[in-house]
Amino acid sequence: MKQLRFSSFRQRLNAAFLAVSLVPLLLCSALLLQIFRLRMTADQQQNAQQQLDGACYAVDTMHEGLASAAAALQKSRTVLRALSGGQADSAAVYSVLFDATEPVRRFARFDLYDADGTLRYSTQTAPEEQMLSTSWGVLQEAVQEEPGVIVYCASGNPLELSEPVLRAAARLTMDGQTAGYLVAAMYESHFRTLLDAMAGAQNALLVMDRFWHGIYCSQQAQVLTLSNALRGQLLAGRALTGLSDNFLYTARQSGTTGLYLVLQQPQVFTRGTLRLLYTVSALCALGGVAVSILLSLQLSRQVFQPIGALHHAITKVGKNDLQVQVPVQEGQHDELGELAQQFNRMVLSLRRNQQALLQNQQALNDAQIRMMQAQLNPHFLYNTMSTIQWRTMALTGGRNDASDMIENLSDLLHYVLDSRTEWATLREELAVTESYVAIQKIRHQNQFDYICCCPQEAMDARVMKMMLQPLVENSISHGMKEDERLNVRVNVELNGDHLCIRVSDDGEGIDEEKLKQVRKGLKSAYTENGRHIGLYNVNKRITLVYGETYGVEIESEYGKGTTITLKLPLVKDEALFKNGEA
Predict the structure, then answer these.
(1) CA 541, CA 536: separation in Å to the nearest integer?
(2) Where are the alpha helices (DSSP H) in 158-270?
(3) CB under 8 Å, gap of 24 or more: what pairs does 436-442 form?
(4) Which residues lie below 8 Å from residue 74, measured CB to CB, with a gap of 6+?
(5) Which among 29, 64, 119, 124 is least surrounded, fewest beta carbons within 10 Å?
(6) Residue 538 contacts residue 567 (beta carbons within 8 Å)
(7) Average per-residue pLDDT in the chain?
């Protein structure tokens, strides 16, 4: 299944709105329709069970009445002698017969037959058929049962209203021999009286024997067609509910009589009703779809218009148009309004930064022009210094302090002005520092001593140029005392992957208040009349190149001296260091 793709944010937004609004609506509609259908079906089934309970109770009550009548007649010697051919008073027999059948006489006609099947007594007008065969039918079934047991047998044609639709019989015995039979002949009118109002106006109640032959139906015209159809369903192994789409069938067998009672109810949801419900639901769903589409379009338009304006403004900013502004409606305080305001402030800040950048670039260009105008040719400077040195030696007849200062200054300038690289070995850094110290010794008439201690394995470490000379200069410039000799010492230590260079002196030192100011100046370019600017420059260069974990630390005690410590990483190759590999 291909994934749905939308070319714009607005289409995705519309699809999301429709999904959020329609999916719950359709699911809830289908769920409510199904719940309503199941609830109505359950109520219908419950109503069917209640009606069948009433019908079964009526049939069972009739059966109990028949059994009671058979038991009473079985106890009457008068009735038994009369049926056996003995002398009997007919009035006495009728009296016993009417008394025994009183509770159920309105549901059947009761007849007494002798052992040969000849009618002897009847509670109503004697039927035309005066004989019943004991070889088949109801009497034959009664012979096979114990005395007093009620058996039932349906008639051949339940539509013949002049004939009983059902006969019930019980065998009567005297001294172990069959004396006769009690037969209850039930007509259609009797069943209508027995089961009156049990089915309801719209339902049909069908009574069938144990072979599913029709006996009675509240809608009498359907007794044969309905019973034959239901029996066909059973023989075919199909459920009764599959007989018709318009009716629901519920069956119950009476445990005492063996009769089957089937209740036919109209389906709550027929095919036409379901079609109507589905049509109405579909129309409602289409209406919901239309409303959801209109609402989603309106909502997406309200959301997309400021987003579209913001997208248009961003496109212009991408083309370096910093004069664009996103319009914000008055009183709009939602997220989109705040986003537009933030964008406008960002564009304004970009415009200011661009103007400041242009100004800074112009200032940088001017500075580069001035620097180029003031730049000296290093080779011309070196040659001039050499010429001055040799001329001085020629005038004085040999080396002297002036020629030595010129030579050391020439070496120092050559080291500083070499623009091929900003890196040097620690050996070269110490050598140029010694050149600077030689110049200062001549200047201060050899009033201080300089000692340098560096392990041989650290000599080839790569460091930035002119990191050590400003520290030594600081010790000489600020540590000299009038009547005491100054000692300046440089110690280099290796500590794993780190390089530690300490420049210490036993000079005047710094009091606590000034020391705080000097330390503050290391972080913020603070200087007092230009003092200690070299310390700040060295510390700034170290932190820019190596990171904030490295730099300059200063310790001092007034009257005892000062110690300045450089903490550096041990770098063997500045190329690897610049590439982040060392």
Answers:
(1) 9
(2) 188-194, 223-235
(3) 436/408, 436/412, 436/469, 436/472, 436/473, 437/472, 437/476, 437/488, 438/404, 438/405, 438/408, 439/405, 439/408, 439/409, 439/412, 440/473, 440/476, 442/401, 442/404, 442/405
(4) 80, 147, 148, 172, 173
(5) 124
(6) no
(7) 81
The pair of structure tokens assigned to 379 is: 């080779």
Contact 223/217 with Cβ under 8 angstroms? yes
Q: Which amino acid is at 440?
A: Q
How many CA atoms are closer than 13 Å to the CA of 225, on its beta-carbon side?
6
Amino acid found at 547: G
Query: What is the CB neighbour count within 10 angstroms for residue 419?
Result: 7
Interval 238-293: pLDDT, tens? 777 666 677 888 888 888 888 998 888 887 776 777 777 778 877 887 887 787 77
- 154 pairs with which residues across the strands? 166
Give, for 553, the enclosing helix (H) or strand (E): strand 551-557
pTM: 0.50
- The DSSP line for 74-137 is HH-HHHHHHHTT----HHHHHHHHHHHHGGGGGG-EEEEEETTSBEEEESSSPPS--B--SSSH
| Model pLDDT, residue 64 | 93
In this structure, what token pair is assigned to residue 188?
A: 């259609």
pLDDT digits (tens, 9 = 90+) for 114-151: 988 888 899 887 666 678 888 888 888 888 888 889 99
Phi, psi torsion values for 578, nearest 5 degrees: -65, -30
Dig out the tokens for 413 from the structure.
Answer: 């300038």
First and final CA of the chain: distance in angstroms?
A: 53
The residue assigned the tokens 């300059």 is 552
Amino acid at 98: F
User: Using the 8-state DSSP alphabet, how is residue 186 labeled?
Assistant: E
> What is the DSSP secondary-structure string of 217-232?
ESSGGGHHHHHHHHHH
Q: Are 194 and 58 in contact (CB under 8 A)?
A: yes
Tell me the C-alpha to C-alpha distance, in Å, between residue 299 and each of 24, 47, 199, 293, 329.
19, 50, 58, 10, 17
Burial class (CB in 10 A: 0-12, 13-18, 19+), 132: buried
* Cα pseudo-dihedral 522, 526, 527, 533, rounded to 10: 40
Minimal CA–CA distance to 44: which of 249, 347, 307?
Answer: 249
26/39: higher pLDDT? 39
Residue 425 bridge partners (DSSP): 462
